[in-house]
Amino acid sequence: MTRIVHLSDTHFGTEREPVVQAVLSLVGELQPDLVLLGGDITQRARRSQFAAARRFVQSLQRPVLAVPGNHDIPLFNVLARLVNPYGAYRRAMGAVLEPVVEIPGLLAIGVNSTRPGRHKNGQVDAAQISRVAQRLRKADPDALRLVLLHHPVRALVDSDQRNLLIGREQAVPAWIDAGVDLVLGGHIHLPYVLPVQGEAQAAARQAWAVQAGTAVSHRVRGGISNSINVIEHSAGDAQHHCSVQRWDYLADVQAFRRASVQTLDWHRRPPLR
After folding, report:
1. N or C, which terminus of the chain has less Cβ within 10 Å?
2. HEC readout, the chain
3. Which range of residues forms the domain containing residue 53?
4. What is the domain count for the chain?
């Protein structure tokens, strides 16, 4: 079985220390194969905030795949935003903005959906869409194949339509037809799981949009506490089993507890070549 912890929107600079410690405790208990950190790692891309984020990542003591969010680009330092928008991010989180992790049973592809020229909206371009699709087609057919970005590709509530990824109409069907199983996002601090489809001629191929809430920040939304996702996948004899668990922080016990489990209706077909 492959186990993944999906965190997003930590917003270091607005973190709640008991929640940070509870995340570290849960990750230590679960010992996931990979931790995903889906952007807005800091609140205002300041060095002190990235330093706190770096300490957090090191304390996880697990492999981590991270992508930037719009808050990880300087907002008030206009010169840095223009000349070296990812400088502080790279110093803290690593030089690669779109990392890829491939281990037995898992292919995880990071996509940088931020644009320094935009205040908060995310976008993917044709080159990113093509590169990711090509990599997905090379994956082990029994592996869980996921794409991690910061911005959502499907909204649960109408007010979030304005937050959706620009280019999603081209990217999501192309990636589904190439074999993606999960498209993971954050940005809107609202956790949910919704199905997404490929092109019309490949309608039998279905994937899932998996959104994470804010992991440790006080900037919670919708009456939902700090939350993280735990994804478990296993495959054998052409059968796939995958579940997405939402774990919520409970203040009275200062720990995360499993709030829901969604077993995905898995209808995987071979990717289009």
Report:
1. C
2. CEEEEEECCCCECCECHHHHHHHHHHHHHHCCCEEEEECCCECCCCHHHHHHHHHHHHHHCCCEEEECCHHHCCCCCHHHHHHCCCHHHHHHHCCCCCCEEEECCEEEEECCCCCCCCCCCCECCHHHHHHHHHHHHCCCCCCEEEEECCCCCCCCCHHHHHHCCECHHHHHHHHHHHCCCEEEECCCCCCEEEEEECCHHHCCCEEEEEECCCCCECCCCCCCCCEEEEEEEEEECCEEEEEEEEEEEECCCCEEEEEEEEECCCCCCCCCC
3. 2-263
4. 1
